[in-house]
Amino acid sequence: MLDFANLRIDNVDQLVSTLEDELGGVSTQWWNANKSVVAGYLRSLAEATLQTQVALTNQQIPAEAADMIMRNQQLAFNQTLQFTKFMTLVLAQQLLDATFRVIGWVIYNKTGVNLAPSLVQPAGTAAS
């Protein structure tokens, strides 16, 4: 986590390096939060599909029930795709927010001018 109050950037290379670190951290947090969720959904749907096919093959359920179950599983799969798309948009927004947060702090620390009023001041510092 960056110490924004003491962030000193003197050239473009430092800015790019800082942005890479911050965006990498945001991306890693997003991936860690979402990788098991999507994998769990897909694993669960695959298992349910397999169980439905076995039950149909063993004549434990009628074809109409299997068809209804499979349609519901298809809907659940489509919801998982929509969730994944939504979470990717969330990541994009988080990356954009992080970029502007870093740039905002660089400007604030260099000039004392807060061009991004939503910057969160670290504890013990005063907003201007």
The major sheet is characterized as: none
Determine Rg (CA atoms, Å): 24 Å
Give average pLDDT, whole number.
88
* Helix coverage percent: over 70%
Tell me the distance between the termini: 23 Å
Taking pLDDT < 50 over at least 5 consecutive residues as the criterion, the unreliable ranges are: 122-128
Number of strands: 0
Order of helices and strands: HH
Classification by helices and strands: mainly alpha
What would you call the shape? rod-shaped
What count of helical segments does DSSP give? 2
Strand portion, in percent?
under 5%
Structure overview:
With 128 residues, the protein is mostly helical. The chain has a domain at 4-82. Helix content is 74%, strand content 0%. It has 2 helices and no strands. It has helices at residues 12-57, 63-111. The longest helix has 49 residues, at 63-111. The two termini are 23 Å apart. Residues 122-128 have low confidence and may be disordered.
